[in-house]
Amino acid sequence: MPKIIFLPNEELCPDGAVLDAEPGESVLNVALKNDIGIEHACEKVCACTTCHVIIREGFDSIEESDELEEDMLDKAWGLEPDSRLGCQAIVGDIDLVVEIPKYTVNMVSENH
């Protein structure tokens, strides 16, 4: 079973986390079911950038982003070459190391 290693994030997981993930799950869903409250203002339909994450290790093991996700990512704060939307980054068979950016473009937390 692959693991997702979330790097420490001051607000969402100060100590970081190592979580089990099922292949086929999204990075966002794994985080949410383990009480890591990554924003997801569009309810996981690839219509915003609030679930932007950076895949620090294991990036090549997840499916490539499609054109819609690429268009959304262009609007994300702090975009990097290994950025993905958490709702679209699907876990494969390899462990991932994920950084949750400090900021999102969302001015007010949705508190999902």
Topology overview:
Layout: E1 3-6, E2 17-20, H1 27-33, E3 52-57, H2 67-73, E4 83-85, E5 96-99
**Largest sheet at a glance?**
5 strands, mixed
Rg measurement, Å: 12 Å
Average pLDDT, rounded to a whole number, is 92
Read across the widest sheet, the strand sequence of neighbours is 2-1-5-3-4
Structural class: alpha+beta
Helical fraction equals 10-25%
Task: Tell me what you see in this structure.
The chain has 112 residues and is of the alpha+beta class. The protein contains two helices and five strands. A five-stranded mixed beta sheet has the order 2-1-5-3-4. The chain is globular. The protein starts with a strand and ends in a 13-residue tail after the last strand.
Q: What tags apply to this protein structure?
A:
112 residues; alpha+beta; five-stranded mixed beta sheet; globular
